[in-house]
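Bench notes, bay 3.
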Amino acid sequence: MASASELVETIRGWAECVNEKRWDDLSKYMCPTYNQNGKDYTPESWATHVKEQVAPELGGDVRINEDSIMVDEEAQCVALSMWFKFQPKKPFLGFEPTGRDVWLIEHGFIWFAEGKLSRALFVINSDHMRSQLSSPNGELAPDLISEYPVPKAEAPLSRARLEEVYRAYVDTVNGRRTKTDYAKYVNQPEAALNNRALARRIVEDTLAAIPDLHVTIHHLIADERSQRLAVWLEFRGTPIKDYAGLVADGRTVSFNEHATYQFVDGKIQRIWGVMDLDAARRQQKPSKCPAVVLGL
């Protein structure tokens, strides 16, 4: 079993290979079969994917920049956030090139086998990129985890307790008790932010549009030192009114979210979440919302 430091070193070595276009060296860091978002690659076919599909989408070049890494040594898994800054040279997400930089944020989980990358789940900030591309005021910088210093905690929670509190928080959403119990789990509930938007408003608006919404926790990593927790969630429900590009057509949709939570003294203080709403939109109107062929 690889140590936490070895897993981080592997991730950084893998990223360096991509940044320096040392495709032949990727095999040192990747299993013979690497599965990303349900699709199998060899190190060679994945390198071809990045070189011939991802890089052209990002204007001809690609560079991985590390934002946050959290490790679960027992599960041989890391939760990863990274960012790219690029200038599209051709139509991207339905917008013509503007000559302006665009921030792409990618969050996900990577699993290892014998110390090498084996499987990954990633989601990107498609809606935020659309806002950047459509904004006449230029760059809309993201809310990066690395720019937020770890706050001092008077009463830090153990890893097990972080998981327990978070699962209880999700239960309040599934049990529709947010109006009465939200403040039990969130510091300053009327001010807590999720990517600079009010976290409580996001929860309330989502439940109002999808009243039968159910949230399932699929993967979770808690870090006692930083009092942070990363999670991969699945949302499932039937919209009863138009919301975030979804329409009330009677269809049940499902989509994923990767989110990182900052806890302070036992309560959530800040959230960095990315929802794959494009996946839900494609379930309703597949011809109008094509998949974005990206992912590293």
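Next record in the batch:
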Amino acid sequence: MESLFFLLLLGVAGRLGSAVPVTPDLAYIRNGTCLDARPPASLSYGQFAGRWVEVSSRPNVFRQARQCVNMHFIITEDTPLRITTGIDNNHELTEVVTRMRPQETQSAFIVELHGLETGTFVVLDTDYDSLACVYQCQQATESAKVEWAYVYARNLEQAEEAEKRCRKVFLSRGFDVESLVRSPHPDETCNTAI
């Protein structure tokens, strides 16, 4: 199972266009199991849709975008989509589309990238207008996981309040909030690129 998961991760990384090092860094795989996220009972897709700015996140080795990261949630006839845009290490605009397959609880989704399931995405808290706290995890083996947390705001003026509230939400679920890193949004790059 571990080798299968590792190959899947390498396949995703290859499809995203990132170079796979000779000795891969597996620091993104953590011991333990995915958190019991206990999402709210429902999520209004219509209110949640639209653009969100990423305020902070646990670093994601698979992501092409390294700064100016925005998430655009779009409701289509068959499934919601998440379009991640930003600027990569070469200062090029990137865009990655993932399918969001709704689960029984409306605030939980299975994320699919290029047809591969890459984990469960759960909106733990949102007020729809200014912030959203999101947890994403994939159980690699019985004792290893790959997990991320994201703090979103509708605009950067709401970043401090979103960060403060989401840290409390993540901490209450047992997530290591010290692993969250501020997402860079330099004016000189973001204002001209997006």
